[in-house]
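Structure ticket #2291
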Amino acid sequence: MPARTKSLHQIDNKPLRDRVLDVLRDAIVSGDMKPGDPLIELELSAQLGVSRAPLREAIQVLSREGLIETTPYKGAVVRTLTRRDIEELYSLRSVLECFAVQRLIKQNSPVNVARLREVFEDMLAAAKQGDLKAVNNLDRKFHDLLIELSDHNLLLMTWSSVSLRVRQVMALRNRRNSDITRIAYNHLPIIEAIEQRDEIKALELLQQHVASSGDLLAENWDEVREGLQS
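Resolution: structure written out below.
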């Protein structure tokens, strides 16, 4: 291949609707678009430089995914969150991730531990640079990887059904953390317990990691919601 062509990237052949969907979904799950924010078609079509047809198709998909709510004659808004939503999501998340960790410990794979450490190190580097968006993405990647490495197809399918909401709540919670390096460091003891094959400690640490964030967010949700809307 001639050297001058090596820098070329593959052309994105996704349909326009899917590209619009990716942009809106990422804005919601990253917390850039917050619960209760309206999706005004005229404004969004102008911002994205697209017609309203692919935008409406994307909104329909987001509605099926549970990320937005559509009310006749009122339009669509980013789905609001209640304390119950958060408590249910985090309690289920704890069960799924603990099961994944149990399987990881039984596998006793240094390669899997190394992959988790790599994500942690990338997360810490992003945190030290003050890049909250990268931290959020790597935080999500770490927990997705726990599920993926468990090598359990039904677990992966169940996780995929809630992962978007998990990402959204995780990002909203991380925005309230004044020291984002702590977000990264909170993952290190879990990795070390998995590496040491200490199942009791690993599960305890993971449950604390998940529950503390969920409880704090749920307990302060009225305050959080006011802050997001201001």
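Closing remark: The chain has two domains: 16-78, 83-229.
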